[in-house]
Amino acid sequence: MSRNGWRQTADHRPAHGLPRRRVLTAAALAPLLAAAPTPARARPAPLPHEPITPGGRELIEPVHTTLADWKKVAKALGRTGDMKRKVMYHTGLPRRDLRVDSHHVRVKAPLALGSHVSFVRYADDSTLVMGDIVVTEQELQEFVDTLQEHRLHLTALHKHLLSQRPDVWWVHVHGHGDDPVAMARGLREAFDGTGTPPDKASDPDEKVDLDTDGIDDAMGAKGSVDDGIYKCIFVRREKISDGKLVLPPGLGSTSAFNFQPLGHGRAAVSADCCMIAKEVPRVLRALRKADAKLVELHNHGLTDEPRLFFVHVWAVGDAVRLARALRHAVDATDVVAAGS
Q1: For residue range 119-131, what is the model confidence (pLDDT) as tens digits?
Q2: Is 307 within 8 Å of 276 (Cβ atoms)?
Q3: pTM beyond cutoff 0.70
Q4: DSSP string, 166-231
Q5: 202 phi and psi, to 5 degrees?
Q6: Which strand ranges, in their side-by-side order, compose the sheet holding 114-121?
Q7: In angstroms, rounded to a whole number, what is the distance separating the alpha carbons of residues 215 and 282?
Q8: By the 8 A CB rule, do 26 and 15 touch?
């Protein structure tokens, strides 16, 4: 027994030289320390049959389809589409009904008013639909309400143009499920609440009043004509996924530079650059040095990996000189010309 009347056993004896007050304090704190969270355990190794990516996610690949696979979707949409890269059923719905002016330029529909939706089938037999839709400010709220009634999601709401008249908005649409026809019906109902007209075929051989060879050389890409607009398209090099779905190259991950002739070699340029986070500052600096006006910096998706950012820009001037200057923004990103 100690002089204080309590027994010091081997289990309860204070350390040599440690005041009794510290011992009592430690005893009082013991329950709190016991309740503190323990360090996270290492993630168990996956079962041998689990296809796990380096990021720890099981990814599902798209499968090849043909136009015949999408006949019911085309009927539900009320518009025909085409196949891109053998995996995307793409339908264009340009707003040719709108007369839009921006910075004293009458904007042609293929320059910046080109609504479109794409359907992709996956190895688990599910379907992804993604699109970028042009609506007027008066059409916007009803359009979004109709999408939501059909369980189609709004993932971005933004602008492509500065000071445009009338006020126009761009809506990114996202849907994933087992019934592509039901999604197409929902889109059709949303479109029917707008002035979106039926599409008409454009003339791929139409000439444009621009030095297209000079633009190609400056941009490092072979462009194409779309209803009087010259377009240079680039796609990201990485494998891009949305949740567990691998996105085909070009779906929601393109950089596009559209040139509308204004006469005497001049053009209005509406462009959209696709970037990962670390590329954003360099691209924005390059665009401003090219005298391009920044319109919008935003995301298109909610669960993309790597996380993608998009900047919309506007520029007017000599087409080849603009292309040469804009090329620095392209070179600041990890992209390759579409079709390369």
Answers
A1: 999 999 999 999 9
A2: yes
A3: yes
A4: S-EEEEEEEEEES-HHHHHHHHHHHHHTTTPPPP----TT---SS-HHHHHHHHTS--EEETTEEE
A5: -95, 165
A6: 82-84, 88-94, 114-121, 127-136, 168-177, 153-158
A7: 22
A8: no
Three-state DSSP class for 90? Answer: strand
Closest CA to 261 of 324, 208, 207: 208
pLDDT per position as a tens digit, 132-147 = 999 999 999 999 999 9
Q: 305 pairs with which residues across the strands?
A: 241
283-311 tens-digit pLDDT: 999 999 999 999 999 999 999 999 999 99
Token duo for residue 52:
């796990």
Q: What is the DSSP letter of 274?
A: E
Encode burial over 165-203: b for 16+ CB neighbours within 10 A, e otherwise: eeebbbbbbbbbeeebbbbbbbbbbbbeebebeebeebe
Question: What is the band of 45 on the pLDDT scale with cuts at 50, 70, 90?
Answer: very low
Q: What is the pLDDT at residue 57?
A: 64
Cα gap 164→170, rounded to integer Å: 13
Beta bridge partners of 60: 245
Distances (CA, A) of 330 to 210, 269, 272, 316, 334: 21, 14, 10, 18, 8
pLDDT tens for each residue of 215-252: 999 999 999 999 999 999 999 999 999 999 999 998 98
Going by pLDDT thresholds of 50, 70 and 90, the confidence category of residue 201 is low
Q: Which two tokens stand for residue 118?
A: 């794409």
Beta strands in 19-113 (DSSP E): 82-84, 88-94, 100-102, 105-107
Residue type, 180: P
Contact by Cβ (8 Å): 253, 308: yes
Cα–Cα distance measured from residue 238 to residue 101, given in angstroms and rounded to the nearest whole number: 36
The neighbour count for residue 274, using CB atoms within 10 Å, is 23
